[in-house]
Design a protein that fits this description.
The structure is a single chain. By secondary structure, this protein is α+β, with helices and mostly antiparallel strands. It contains 9 helices and 6 strands. It has a 6-stranded mixed beta sheet with strand order 1-2-4-3-5-6, with helices on one face. Helix 3 crosses helix 7. It is globular and about 95 Å long.
């Protein structure tokens, strides 16, 4: 092998070695990117799982705390002797966000009361103005709330309450007709003999609206749902996150 050939061979080996090193470095980078990607995906997955668990609705306990229907149409849920902390829920049966709150945190409110951790008071109000959807939305809300006032049994009231949110009509459509409300009452187990007559006559409508205005002014409501803990507004990030809602109420009880 000539000197020139040997020089060429050395250059070729150096070139091959550099190419091999370059490929090895590229493989390292690919592995590193892949590893980082897996870690990132794992972190995202863990964060999503944590958030999902935080907002996952609770299962409602089999036995609810006693419910007392009050003179203003509200319903107080709580075990005997439990007077604090107090959770006040201001809700409109026609309000979509109120339905969402019921679906997300309704079980938590009920469970806290059943566990003796809080007293929960439900305040049905009509928040929608007459000029909205030609009065359709307000009328739906009023009929539903007036029908709820026809029920004096606490357990039946709560069952009817849940039925109303479960079957809530769209805001722009006429719903909660008296016939529908009577049927919902039967499904909820309402046994009052005058329930159908009370609903059909809507004899509680004006009383509900008058009380609703008073309650909204007294509680300084800007909208529904509004949840107060011991008289102070709760952040919706908390009320719509069952685990945080529970912990906040438990902390208030300490």
């Amino acid at each position: 092998m000539s000197k020139a050939q040997r020089g060429q061979s050395v250059r070729d080996r150096i070139k091959s070695q550099r190419e091999a090193e370059k490929k090895q470095e590229q493989r390292k980078r690919v592995v590193t990117y892949a590893t980082v990607g897996v870690i990132a995906l794992a972190a995202i997955g863990a964060g999503w799982l944590f958030a999902a668990n935080q907002s996952k609705p609770e299962e409602t306990a089999q036995a609810l705390a006693p419910v007392t229907i009050q003179g203003d149409g509200s319903a107080a849920m709580g075990n005997a002797g439990v007077e604090a902390p107090v959770i006040d829920i201001y809700e409109d049966f026609q309000c979509p966000a109120c339905k969402q709150l019921e679906e997300t945190s309704g079980a938590t409110f009920k469970n806290l009361a059943a566990e003796g951790k809080a007293k929960v008071v439900f305040h049905p109000v009509t928040i929608f103005p007459q000029q909205m959807n030609n009065g359709i939305t307000r009328a739906n809300s009023t009929r539903a709330a007036a029908a709820a006032r026809c029920i004096t049994d606490g357990k039946q009231w709560m069952a009817f309450h849940d039925k109303l949110f479960a079957t809530q009509p769209e805001e722009h459509l006429e719903g909660f007709t008296t016939d529908q409300l009577i049927a919902l009452g039967k499904e909820a187990g309402v046994t009052a003999p005058d329930f159908a007559t009370c609903v059909t006559s809507q004899k509680n409508a004006q009383g509900h609206l008058a009380n609703s205005d008073q309650v909204m002014k007294a509680a300084k409501l800007d909208g529904t749902p509004t949840v107060k803990l011991n008289g102070k507004d709760m952040d919706q990030d908390i009320t719509f996150t069952p685990s945080r809602l529970r912990q906040t109420v438990l902390d208030a009880a300490k």
